[in-house]
Design a protein that fits this description.
Shape: elongated
Number of strands: 9
Oligomer: single chain
Structural class: alpha+beta
């Protein structure tokens, strides 16, 4: 009995050139090195001074070479999704045998010809009927005079034309003017691809700030840090940079997944999966590396001059912020989330910044019914305070009894039981309001992420992680407090709702908020 022959396994060919119909690879180079050189017998090519037939070169991978990489992809007529980190191009496709400053792009032997233009289509068939002209447009009476006397009745010209038409040919309707009609747009073969309509490689600094709130350099630094932080980055057919851009556009602009799917040429389900996986990774990264409590020496070194006179030991400024949420169907949840201050169902959280404007602590979300004292007690904020710290807060934070020993609390004076505040109390209240206003500006910067400023549907999950990620992204933006504007800033403490009426914002955040509105 004959045994069936086993198929031979194909050996690994190594890295192969990405150009179409080009079979040059690293294995052929290795085999060439092991063969004997005919000119330097008995040395092998690896030992002789002969030059290699070609060399392999990787695609540009640095962030600053993004435009150069894209031009490589266009010259090779490839899709950006098929280009991997290990993709290479051999030297025969470069005029100098390798990428140089004079010829940095592959232009030779690319394996394809220029895209042919589509033909305009088949011309309409010729009209087989006699054409009426002014010369032949004679009346039937004049024709009858030239013809001999016959008993054949004459027919009108229109009937004769219809009778002489070919049955198998349908003539298009004849119009007086053809310069108004537009031809149907034809899609070129070169444009029939599923490339995203927006890509991180194409964004300038201004566009990147609009879509993500970050500069281009900060965007690529964040991507590098996230890829190094995550042990297994999310794998989708979309590039990692475009995945991060999708997530940041969802946070910054509040776009829906259907819209994001159309922009990045993916399905709605894929866009939702990308956001869910990345938001968990980003929340862990922000919790461990970005939204952190600064050491005391760092606080002293970065404390603005406006705090030096009246609050030289100020450690942090705290306040609570509320996020509108869709009214829950559950009656108990509806009662827990209803805010008497906003007259709406909301989520509420404690927001803590350093004197320099750096976000150091963000609590989990509570129902809008929770008080400031309850959130301060249960959020774990008091666990990070040390003796000698000073906390600046609003009137609602009467938390002297829960603060650790040696921690000072500075809040505005109360008028309860007094007809008028003393002059010293009024002066101290104005000084406190002049520096406490920065936490309202920090909250305004947080609300520039439209996913938090809009009404959050009840079906949205991981709202705590979304809130934490947005707070961490605020730390990656330019400085919130600048000395030149802090010295001239004055605040009217009579209006408690300064979050909606704060007009003293830095130029960068004002431009972004104006674009989004």
């Amino acid at each position: 009995m004959e045994t069936p022959k086993r198929k031979k396994k194909r050996g690994n060919s190594g890295r192969t050139c990405a150009v179409k119909d080009c079979s040059n690879n690293s294995k052929k180079i290795q085999e060439w090195k092991e063969t004997e050189c005919t000119e330097h017998h008995p040395l092998t090519h690896d030992e002789c001074p002969c030059q290699r037939p070609y060399s392999l070169h990787r695609f540009p991978g640095k962030p600053e070479d993004a435009a150069k990489k894209r031009q490589w992809i266009i010259n090779l007529n490839l899709k950006s999704l098929t280009v991997k980190d290990h993709s290479v191009v051999c030297g025969i496709h470069f005029p100098d045998g390798k990428p140089t400053d004079k010829h940095p792009y592959p232009v030779l032997h690319l394996g394809y010809q220029g895209v042919k233009k589509l033909s305009p289509g088949r011309a309409p068939p010729k009209n087989r009927c006699p054409v009426r002209t002014t010369d032949s447009a004679t009346s039937s009476e004049e024709v009858s005079e030239d013809l001999p006397d016959m008993d054949v009745p004459l027919q009108p010209v229109e009937e004769e034309v219809q009778r002489t038409h070919d049955i198998g040919v349908q003539h298009p309707p004849i119009s007086d003017h053809t310069y108004v009609t537009k031809a149907a747009p034809t899609k070129s073969v070169a444009t029939q691809t599923d490339l995203p309509s927006i890509s991180a490689y194409d964004l300038g600094d201004k566009d990147c700030k609009f879509f993500t709130g970050l500069s281009v350099a900060m965007f690529w630094n964040l991507l590098t840090a996230l890829l190094a932080f995550s042990p297994q980055p999310p794998k989708f057919k979309l590039a990692s940079s475009d995945q991060l851009l999708l997530v940041l556009m969802r946070l910054r602009l509040g776009l829906m997944f259907t819209d994001l799917g159309k922009r990045f040429s993916v399905s709605r389900t894929t866009a939702c999966d990308i956001f869910s996986l990345w938001i968990s990774v980003m929340a862990d990264f922000m919790q461990k590396n970005v939204v952190v409590w600064l050491p005391r020496d760092t606080l002293n070194r970065t404390r603005p001059k406006s705090f030096a006179t009246n609050y030289p030991r100020a450690t942090c400024i705290i306040d609570c912020t509320e996020i509108f949420v869709q009214r829950p169907k559950n009656l108990k949840q509806r009662a827990q989330t209803f805010s008497n201050y906003k007259h709406h169902n909301t989520y509420k959280s404690l927001y803590c910044i350093s004197p320099s404007g750096y976000v150091m602590f963000v609590s989990k979300l509570f129902g809008g019914r929770a008080s400031d004292v309850f959130i301060s007690r249960t959020s774990g904020f008091t666990d990070v305070l040390l003796p000698g710290d000073e906390v600046l807060a609003d009137r609602g934070f009467t938390i002297d009894d829960i603060l650790p020993h040696g921690v000072k609390l500075a809040i505005p004076a109360f008028t309860r039981g007094l007809k008028q505040l003393p002059e010293e109390a009024v002066t101290e209240t104005r000084r406190l309001a002049n520096v406490r206003i920065h936490v309202e500006r920090a909250i305004r910067r947080l609300k520039c992420y439209k996913i938090l400023s809009n009404i959050i549907p009840g079906s949205v999950k991981n709202v705590d992680k979304i809130h934490l990620v947005c707070a961490g992204l605020c730390n990656l933006q330019p400085l919130l407090i600048r000395e030149d504007e802090v010295e001239e800033m004055e605040v009217d403490e009579d209006n408690d709702d300064t979050e909606d009426e704060d007009q003293e914002v830095d130029t960068y955040m004002y431009d972004i908020a104006e674009d989004l509105e």
